[in-house]
Amino acid sequence: MSERSAWNARVTGVSSLPPVTLVIVPGLHGSEDAHWQTWLEREMPGARRVEQRDWDAPNLAIWSDAVLDVLAGIDGPVVLAAHSFGCLATAHALSHAGAFQAHAANVKGVLFVAPASPAKFRFAGAFSARRLDTLSLVVGSETDPWMPLDEARTLAQRWNSAFVNLGDAGHINTAAGFGPWPLAKHFVETLARRVSPDYEEEGQRAYG
């Protein structure tokens, strides 16, 4: 079974989508209007976006705090969709929630798309990949200039995330042709279904 097929098998037979809030976490320079994150935000009613004071100055501590600030303002289950350095900020936030732990616990799923290499962002703060306590998926690319595929797969393993290889997809951004991206919506909806009471039972059936 392929990595993508194994991921899709997790929700075999689950059709209902419970109410969740999608939180968009952009990377360096933010996500412009044509970016898939902006498209996805428009597609999901009630979606929220993490804003940074300076999109051109990545700082792991400051950016992760901004993620936690948004989570603190949301009641109910959350799914995060992060891109590039936003993936590192998201993982750092969930691993260092501190007083925000109760809000972090509302995160029921994380979509990490084209995570940036921590080595390339050492100047932004020390990053340590820790096992995450929520269902997550890393989507990597064989031609991503910001993260070799093997490193993306290793990061997924450390986070305890499922992994999907998109092949020749660049940095999975606007420049690589990723504007409207229905697959991203599918992944988010797959993660959202985890909050359904029927998820665990159906997931067990899917794995047989």
Automatic annotation (TrEMBL):
Key words, A-Z: Hydrolase
GO molecular-function term, one example from the UniProt record: hydrolase activity
InterPro entries: AB_hydrolase_fold, RBBP9/YdeN
Pfam families assigned: Ser_hydrolase
Domain of life: Bacteria
Record's protein name: Alpha/beta hydrolase
